Amino acid sequence: MAKQISPKVSWVGKVDWELTTFHGDELSTQHGSSYNSYLVRDQKTALIDTVWLPYDREFVARLKQEIDLNKIDYIVMNHNEIDHSGALMELMREIPNTPIYCTKKGEEILRGHYHQDWNFVNVKTGDTLSLGETTLTFVEMTMLHWPDSMLTYFDGDGGIVFSNDAFGQHFASESLYNDAVEQEILIYEAKKYYANILNMYSPLVQKKVQQILAMNLPMKLICPSHGIIWKENPQQIIDLYLKWADAYQEDQITIVYDTMWQSTRKMAEAIAQGIYEVSPQTTVKICNITHDDKNDVLTEIFQSKAVLVGSPTINYGFSFAIAGLLEMMKGLKLKKKKAGAFGSFGWSGEAVKLINEHLTEAGLELVNEGINKKWVPDQTMLDDCVAYGREFAKAL
Ligand code: FEO
């Protein structure tokens, strides 16, 4: 069902309560998501973005209930990943000549995905599209988070920003607006989304957000392509993005480990005890990477000032789950974070050294060379781990 969000704009997207993973299995989505599409009606009508492929027919059928498709004058594609462009084939079968406004890269991506010679109109930052009394203005958001990404600003109804993925969250809600949902979960989902999808582009986020703020545009609503619409104090998500993009950290240390026979787990807990003894005010989180959600673990790391990674040595290396974590950490391009490694071993003991190498490659600053214990740690070895935790906390 379409929902009117302002006098000239209706939401015509799809709320996906069932979604549990996104980008294949790369990103967990414990609170579902939505694919937001918007219809902007003045003397001319523009449709902004569509929805994910599995919902293409449902989307077009519901759109027909809202408007005669032939009355859609323009389609604006802010970003052409399949979660937003997936319904285009179904829609374009009905209105094949409708112009599609997108960036040059957007056209390349749409051609690469759908292999159609649609009526593309390339736009760049500052280009406008008149809808009659009101105007859409396009702002390229290159690499936030794809090369084609852009934002569309609508100057009617007090100013509406259609930001696509930026400012989004994977969060299903029937009520659409930020003031009608549980705040703690909403902000966590926005943070998790930023940490896992946008953090690597933080320098660009800072630059682009400053550029948009310098335009001094009224913003009554910020309408991303996933999750809720920022209606109550929309500035809050801009402020959060500026904070998150600036090497964000809280007074938190995250300890992530994998374990085979509990030795590495015992070491993790002893290290946590040592940190607590020196710095009781610091939030210490212990995560088992094979049991905990990897994207939640990455969000914990994102908001930490330091991270300790532990693994038993297996097959002269570290565990596959720690390997995945280290690869994902590298992709996040974390800034100004300290790190350490720990592990248990039976005979060769390479894990700690190898984890150190990967942490360094991921751009984290090693506090020391780490701690490695043979076989099952006894109380003396655990005392060493407590002492290690104390020294680690003191060195931050
Ligand atoms: Fe929501 Fe980058 O697609």
Topology:
Elements (H helix, E strand, L loop, with lengths): L2 E4 L2 E3 L2 E3 L4 E2 L4 E2 L4 E3 L2 E4 L3 E4 L7 H11 L7 E3 L5 H4 L2 H7 L5 E3 L1 H11 L5 E3 L5 E3 L4 E6 L9 E5 L5 E5 L18 H16 L3 H13 L6 E4 L10 H10 L7 E6 L5 H16 L4 E6 L5 H9 L3 E5 L9 H13 L5 E8 L5 H11 L3 E2 L4 E4 L4 H17 L1
Parallel strand pairs: 8-9, 9-10, 10-11, 15-16, 17-18, 17-19, 19-20, 20-21, 20-22
Antiparallel strand pairs: 1-2, 2-7, 3-6, 4-5, 7-8, 12-13, 13-14, 14-15
Helix pairs in contact: 5-9, 6-7, 8-12, 10-11
Bound molecules: MU-OXO-diiron.
The site of MU-OXO-diiron has 9 residues, from helix 2.
Report what the structure shows.
By secondary structure, the protein is α/β, with parallel strands linked by helices. The chain folds into two domains: 3-244, Ribonuclease Z/Hydroxyacylglutathione hydrolase-like (Metallo-beta-lactamase, Chain A, 4-Layer Sandwich), CATH 3.60.15.10; 253-394, Rossmann fold (3-Layer(aba) Sandwich), CATH 3.40.50. It has twelve helices and 22 strands. It has helices at residues 56-66, 82-85, 88-94, 104-114, 183-198, 202-214, 235-244, 263-278, 294-302, 320-332, 351-361, 379-395, and strands spanning 3-6, 9-11, 14-16, 21-22, 27-28, 33-35, 38-41, 45-48, 74-76, 100-102, 120-122, 128-130, 135-140, 150-154, 160-164, 221-224, 252-257, 283-288, 306-310, 338-345, 365-366, 371-374. The strands form five sheets. It has a seven-stranded mixed beta sheet with strand order 1-2-7-8-9-10-11. Strands 17, 18, 19, 20, 21 and 22 form a six-stranded parallel beta sheet that branches. Strand 10 (100-102), helix 4 and strand 11 form a beta-alpha-beta unit. The radius of gyration is 24 Å and the shape is elongated. The model has no long low-confidence stretch (mean pLDDT 98).
